[in-house]
Write a structure and sequence with these properties.
InterPro entries: PEP-util_enz_mobile_dom (IPR008279), PEP-utilizing_PTS_enzyme (IPR050499), PEP_util_C (IPR000121), PEP_util_CS (IPR023151), Phosphohistidine_dom_sf (IPR036637), PTS_EI (IPR024692), PTS_EI-like (IPR006318), PTS_EIN (IPR008731). One of its GO terms (biological process) is phosphoenolpyruvate-dependent sugar phosphotransferase system. This is Phosphoenolpyruvate-protein phosphotransferase. The structure is a single chain. By secondary structure, this protein is α/β, with parallel strands linked by helices. The chain has 3 domains: about 110 residues, Glucose Oxidase, domain 1, CATH 3.50.30; about 110 residues, Orthogonal Bundle (Enzyme I, Chain A, domain 2); about 300 residues, TIM Barrel (Alpha-Beta Barrel). The strands form 2 sheets. An 8-stranded mixed β-sheet has the order 1-8-7-3-4-5-6-2. The chain has an 8-stranded parallel barrel with strand order 9-10-11-12-13-14-15-16, surrounded by 4 helices. The longest helix has 30 residues. The two termini are about 40 Å apart. Bound molecules: phosphoenolpyruvate and magnesium ion (MG). The site of magnesium ion (MG) has 5 residues, from helix 16.
């Protein structure tokens, strides 16, 4: 029998494939006394040997598919399984204490993991995760369970997980994963944003019902509407295969807008830029004909590794992006760590409210060494294209001044060293806090541009955690309160001759674009896959007409009223 689940559509697309469940929580083996110690020791040895065969197979597949660097991890796993500190010690526990193999291995491994985690050395701390992985693999063998990792996929699959961190998402095996579903999360959680930049169908916040879906179940994922159909009927399969084809045709049709200008029906030019998280996203931005990059989330450079990226490493990434964009503007945002974005190798104090804590510019001003390294890399890269530096999460003027002071110090230092820096380097801020929106007139005096970060601006204005699906109903980009804030920011900047963009998810939302155009937004920055649909939509809109309609929307009393108004209007124009 087929059944239907729903969640939040996070990244559009339709996928039909088998489910693959990523098990996050696994039980801790309990101590059990056994009779036959020799047989138990044999059991453990056999499980280890069998795990080694599996790992070696994965190593070979990885080597072939992803190259030697990615395969190294599995060489390390094989090496660990031969380590007497782990395996001999576990066998000795069975012999000495007569305990079951699962418990003996887990207990020895847990002591090793604790010791590794308390080390000063980053590399050694990282090894704890490897010890855990191989221990789980052997325990799964002992218990007759399959051990799954992304690297074992050899067929198309839709991934199911309780939640995915941004670094999990970054490691998805794009050869086989056709989409993902998480039980937690919202449209603006970072895994959702990553999915959009990977152009991967994704539904998030599907709730605990999704936890019943097993590896091997056939699934239709309609991420355009947030539907998940498990074990579909033949009719449903036919229907969705057709819809999938149609969706893919539409995506192709949009491609005719790649080389066209971003201009409205009444000849007003705007900029449609792309959001990226790293070099890998560049191809999609270029292929979708974006007018520039409106947000480079540099924190992704710092993730999925064990040490901070050096100035040199950052410089070469920023330079590469600027060169590839060939004179188009690239807005690079300085490090925005904190909230749901953590670095495993950076020990930060536990916070009660990470989204209200030491994140983004607050962290950078606290850890000036990190900030200065990044600024130096950016300043050096500025000579290679049209760079704009953007500071995230500014709340008050003094934070902006402090960030600019440090930037200026690094600029002077580099100039004294004879390093070339672009003479026309723009410096701007994100408007993500209500405080910044309300002080936009003051802030506008001291920046070249604003970019409105609605993902955070909405969460802080509504006091609703963007990661918490129970309050996701308050994520209301079309609510007149949010539109009024956007208007306030644009007017404040306009008076001072500064440009305003938006790089939150709202900027790529087809039912928000007409209003934003009407309110006078100059630059819209979105995931690459939204650029062409946005360009096609803009070509049908009149800026003059929407300036009038947007003002009407400002005095409405709910998001629904605004949405109905916009959709009716768009329908009548079609
Ligand atoms: C935002 O807050 O709107 C934004 C673009 O930043 P991030 O989603 O990375 O917090
Ligand atoms: Mg933000």
């Amino acid at each position: 029998m087929s059944h239907l689940l729903t969640g939040v559509p996070a990244s559009p697309g339709i996928a039909i494939a088998k489910a693959y469940r990523l098990e996050m929580e696994e039980s801790i083996p309990q101590r059990k006394e056994i009779e036959d110690k020799a047989a138990e020791m044999r059991r453990l040895k056999e499980a280890i040997e069998s795990a080694k065969v599996d790992i070696d197979r994965i190593r070979e597949q990885t080597l072939e598919r992803l190259g030697p660097k990615k395969a190294e991890i599995f060489e390390a796993h094989l090496f660990l399984l031969d380590d007497p500190e782990l395996t001999d010690a576990a066998l000795a526990r069975i012999e000495r204490e007569g305990v079951c193999a699962e418990f003996a291995l887990y207990d020895v491994a847990a002591a090793i993991m604790d010791a590794l985690r308390s080390m000063d050395n980053e590399m050694l701390r990282e090894r704890a995760a490897d010890v855990e992985d191989i221990t789980r693999r052997v325990i799964n063998k002992l218990e007759g369970r399959a051990h799954h990792t992304f690297s074992e996929l050899s067929d198309e699959a839709i991934l199911f997980a309780k939640d995915l961190t941004p670094s999990d998402t970054a490691q998805l095996n794009m050869d086989y994963i056709r989409g993902f579903v998480t039980e937690m999360g919202s449209r603006t959680s970072h895994s959702a944003i990553m999915a959009r930049s990977l152009e991967l169908a994704a539904v998030v916040g599907a709730g605990t019902d999704a936890s019943h879906i097993r590896t091997g179940d056939t699934v239709i994922l309609d991420a355009t509407s947030g539907k998940i159909i498990v074990n579909p009927s033949r009719n449903q399969m036919e229907d969705y295969s057709e819809r999938k084809r149609k969706y893919e045709d539409d995506v192709l049709r949009m491609k005719s807008y790649v080389d066209r200008p971003s201009v409205t029906a009444d000849e007003v030019h705007v900029e449609l830029a792309g959001n990226i998280g790293g070099i890998d996203d560049l191809e999609k931005v270029l292929a979708n004909g974006a007018d520039g990059i409106g947000l480079f989330r540099t924190e992704f450079l710092y993730m999925g590794r064990s040490t901070f990226p050096s100035e040199e490493e950052q410089y070469s990434v920023y330079k590469h992006v600027l060169q590839k964009m060939n004179g188009k503007r690239v807005v690079i945002r300085t490090l925005d760590i904190g909230g749901d974005k953590e670095l495993s190798y950076m020990q930060l104090p536990q916070e009660m409210n990470p989204f209200l804590g030491l994140r983004a510019i607050r962290l950078c001003l606290d850890r000036e060494d990190l900030f200065r390294t990044q600024l130096r890399a950016l300043l050096r890269a500025s000579a290679h294209g049209k760079l704009a530096i953007m500071f995230p999460m500014i709340s008050i003027l003094s934070e902006l001044r402090e960030a600019k002071r440090i930037l200026n110090e690094e600029r002077i230092r580099l100039e004294q060293e004879g390093v070339m820096i672009a003479s026309e380097l723009e410096v701007g801020i994100m408007i993500e806090t209500p405080a910044a929106a309300l002080a936009a007139d003051l802030l506008a005096e001291e920046v070249d541009f604003f970019s409105i970060g609605t993902n955070d601006l909405i969460q802080y204005t509504m006091a609703a955690d963007r990661m918490n699906e129970s309050v996701s109903y308050l994520y209301q980009p079309h609510h007149p309160v949010i539109l009024r804030m956007v208007q306030l920011v644009i007017q404040a900047a306009d008076h001072r001759g500064k440009w305003v963009g938006m790089c939150g998810e709202m900027a790529g939302d087809a039912s928000a674009i007409p209003l934003l155009l009407g309110l006078g937004l100059h630059e819209f920055s979105m995931s690459a896959s939204s650029v062409l649909p946005a360009r096609e939509l803009l070509s049908r809109l009149s800026k003059q007409e929407w300036s009038r309609l947007a003002v009407e929307a400002l005095s409405m009393s709910s998001q629904q009223e605004v949405l109905d108004f916009v959709n009716n209007q768009l329908r009548s124009e079609a």
